[in-house]
Description:
Blueprint: E1 8-11, H1 15-26, E2 34-37, H2 41-50, E3 53-55, E4 69-72, H3 79-86, E5 95-98, H4 105-112, E6 117-122, E7 132-138, H5 144-155, E8 158-162, H6 169-177, H7 179-196, H8 201-221, H9 226-233, H10 239-247, H11 253-272
Parallel strand pairs: 1-2, 1-4, 2-3, 4-5, 5-6, 7-8
Antiparallel strand pairs: 6-7
Amino acid sequence: MLEVGGPLLLVGCGKMGGALLAGWIEQGVKPSEVSVVEPNRDAAEAVAAMGARVLGAAGKLEAGFAPAVVLLAVKPQQMDAVLPEVRRFAGAKTVFLSIAAGKPIAYFEAGLGPAAAVVRAMPNTPAAVGRGMSVLSANDKADGAQRKVCEQLLSAVGEVAWVEDEGLLDPVTAVSGGGPAYVFLLIEALAEAGVEAGLPEDLAMRLARVTVAGAGELVHQAAEPAGKLRENVTSPGGTTLEALEILMAPDGLQPLMTRAIAAATRRSRELAS
C-alpha cells in the first residue's frame, strides 16, 4: 500500500496527472487524501468521479492546508503562473515533485525559495497503462523519506530509477521520454513496408501493431538481454537475417538512432537553459 504520510496536492490533471491519480488510488491512496488543482471542466469532472477533491486554482486551498507532496503536472509554459500559488508550502515538511520537461531543479529553487525540497522526474506516456518509466533527480533539501515517497508515487504507474547528476535527465528525456514516439514510428514504418511488399493496408498495420506489442511484452518478461532475444528469432541464412543485414549495416538503424538521440538530448539541454 502506498503511504504518502500526509495530504497530497496534484497540480494539473491532464493525461499524465490523471494516470498518476488513478495509479495512486489503485495502490491504496484514499481519494479523500488527494486535492487536485485543475481548471479544465472535463478533467475536473473526471477527478471528482474518482473521489478526490478538485479546485480551480491553488489559491482556493484553505490557509491551514499543509501537503506532504506537491506534484506539479502542468505544462512547462504554465509553470511560471503556478509556482507563486504553491510557494507558501515550501518548507521541511513538503516536497515538490515536478514532471515538467525542460524545467531544471534550479528553476524551482528560484521560484519556490531556497528551503524548498525538490525532486525532478522524467516519466513517459506508457504510465497511462501502468507500464511507464520514470527517472528522478533531487536537490539536497529532499531527505531520504521524501525521496522514497516520490519514488513510490511514480512506481504506481511503472518502473523508477534515480540519477544523482541532474544533467543525465537530458539523455533520459531523449531515450525514454521520447521513446514511445520512436516505437510508434517504427510501427508506422513497418506497416508501410508491408504495404509496399503487397499486403493490404489494414492487415499490414495489424501485423505491425501486434508484433511490436508482443515483442515489447516478451522483452519485459524475459530474463535474456534484447540482443539474445534478437538472436533467437534469427535463423542462419533465413529471412530475418536478410533484413537485419540491412538494419545493422554501418549506415543502418544504429547510427540513425544515435543521431536522433543526440539531437533530442541537445534540444532538452537548450530548453533547460
